[in-house]
Write a structure and sequence with these properties.
The protein is α/β, with parallel strands linked by helices and 501 residues long. Helix content is 46%, strand content 15%.
Length: 501
């Protein structure tokens, strides 16, 4: 779609007579600036949709509009979000570089430091009753002239601001920053508000100008361009009239911005609902468990919530997978202490003290969610492989507990017959996360042998493979799913699913 938009809008500005004189002034840089601008509109329309968590959860939970295959695509929302962000960065770079050349040439033409034709085109608009083509009207030489445009024109000011915002957002989104300095990532990401405001008004000044449709009827550029000195003196070549392109960006982004506003209002409403911490449990390996209750809270296996502790930070929200089962009368999360925020929560809950902590001393907690993930589809398979690395075993605690409850209660219509759980990089013999006496495999398995063994035991079966872990392990398991699946419609098929939040 990006390629189509780029080519289409390049031709829109490179071929029609409407921009004939604009091309004479700016050359190919005109089309090279406008084509990525159209792609930016498209990608900025998409960038907010993957982070509308409530919308995605609604679509994911609606079997009427979302098949299993579509739900699996919805689970890749953050991957799609990152891809769109990189496309925005690419088109911003092209758009900015092209406009830097445009500004330089416009300023040079205005101070008579260009070819005679460009100078003559730039002089149009100086006389009363004429409309200008060159948006630069002051006669200030470069580089001061270019800087003057950047700090005095709306397009220049907003262009600088949104580019700086984009640079800060992208550079703070690297894996290193997210894991080591999450607060930096969180705060800079909210510069998107300034980015979208600047984007919406960026084209309001209409500096990209072309010949009006009425003027084209009287003044045909291909017949008149060689007689520029005679314009206004001969009947068929009057002084051409120019106007700016109306701003279009707001039309692309107003819909997603409205949806995202609704999303934030829903989050705010849910965050105001009272949450009671009923129990805090300290586990080995600097992990704590929070058991909570909230009126009307309903969950499914594998879902996650966002948590805010105002005592630690009034603005920060952090995602955690639910480790309780839907059958339990509370919901719980396990938190590994790895950063400033988790360390603050650890102390706020009194986990750094030896004595028993009174319930009334526990901090207030706000909860947003739950939100759906790939693990919700676990009961759609007869056989599943659950693979967790480190704290990544937590999504499957909920699943294993729920399986245990369902079998104990002899739940009807339960398709799942076998679940193999692999907890990678653990040495302990007991599962401290699930608390269940399950057959859980620890350490680094021989994946090739495991897939072949499970495949041979369950021929003609769709086997769900669920992972919560690092990208390197995801690549390995995805390749194993492809290589160990039969090519035909029958036979064993491994379906790979990865947690993303």
């Amino acid at each position: 779609m990006n390629v189509f938009l780029f080519v289409w809008y390049y031709r829109v500005y490179d071929i029609p007579d409407k921009f004939f004189y604009t091309r004479k002034l700016l050359g190919s840089a005109l089309a090279l600036a406008r084509a990525p601008a159209a792609c930016l509109n498209f990608n900025c329309m998409l960038i907010l949709l993957p982070v509308c968590r409530n919308l995605l959860s609604f679509l994911r939970g609606s079997s009427a509009c979302c098949s299993t295959r579509i739900r699996r695509q919805l689970d890749r929302n953050l991957t799609f979000h990152k891809m769109v962000a990189w496309m925005i960065a690419l088109h911003t770079a092209i758009h900015t570089i092209a406009h830097l050349f445009n500004v330089e040439w416009c300023v040079n033409a205005r101070v008579n430091n260009s070819d005679p034709y460009s100078i003559a085109l730039s002089d149009i608009g100086d006389k009363p009753g004429e409309t200008y083509l060159n948006f630069v009207r002051q006669r200030i030489k470069n580089p001061e002239g270019g800087l003057y445009v950047a700090v005095t024109r709306l397009a220049g000011i907003t262009g600088v601001v949104i580019t700086l915002c984009l640079i800060l957002i992208i550079t703070s989104s690297t894996k290193t920053i997210r894991r080591s300095y999450f607060e930096v990532f969180w705060y800079t990401h909210h510069l998107f508000v300034i980015f979208f405001i600047g984007l919406a008004i960026h084209g309001a000044e209409r500096i990209v100008r072309g010949q009006t449709n009425e003027s084209l009827l009287k003044h045909q550029p291909r017949n008149c361009y060689q007689n520029i000195s005679q314009w206004g003196k001969i009947k068929n070549c009057p002084i051409p009239e120019f106007s700016g392109n109306p701003p279009m960006t707001w039309k692309w982004i107003v819909g997603p911005m409205f949806l995202y506003l609704c999303e934030r209002l829903v989050r705010f409403w849910r965050s105001q609902q009272k949450v009671v911490i009923t129990k805090v449990v300290t586990h080995p390996f600097k992990t704590i468990e929070l058991q909570m209750k909230k009126k009307g809270f309903k969950m499914e296996v594998g879902q996650y919530i966002f948590v805010k502790c105002p005592m630690v930070s009034k603005l920060e929200w952090h995602p955690f997978t639910l480790t309780s089962a839907p059958e339990e009368d509370f919901f719980s999360i396990h938190i590994r202490i790895v950063g400033d925020w988790t360390e603050g929560l650890f102390k706020a809950c009194g986990c750094d003290k030896q004595e028993f902590q009174d319930a009334w001393k526990l901090p207030k907690i706000a909860v947003d969610g739950p939100f759906g993930t790939a693990s919700e589809d676990v009961f759609s398979y007869e056989v599943v492989m659950l693979v967790g690395a480190g704290i990544g075993v937590t999504p499957f605690a909920s699943i294993l507990k729920s399986v245990w409850y369902k079998y104990c209660n002899k739940a009807p219509n339960l398709r799942l017959q076998k679940a193999s759980h692999f907890a990678v990089h653990h040495d302990e013999e007991k599962d401290v996360i699930t608390g269940l006496k399950q057959k859980t495999l620890y350490g680094r398995p021989n994946w090739d042998n495991e897939f072949k063994t499970i495949g041979s035991q369950h021929p003609n079966t769709r086997i769900g493979v669920f992972l919560c872990g690092p990208e390197a392990l995801a690549d390995t398991l995805n390749k194993q799913c492809i290589s160990n699946s039969d090519s035909g419609p029958r036979g064993v098929h491994f379906i790979f699913n990865k947690e993303n939040f």
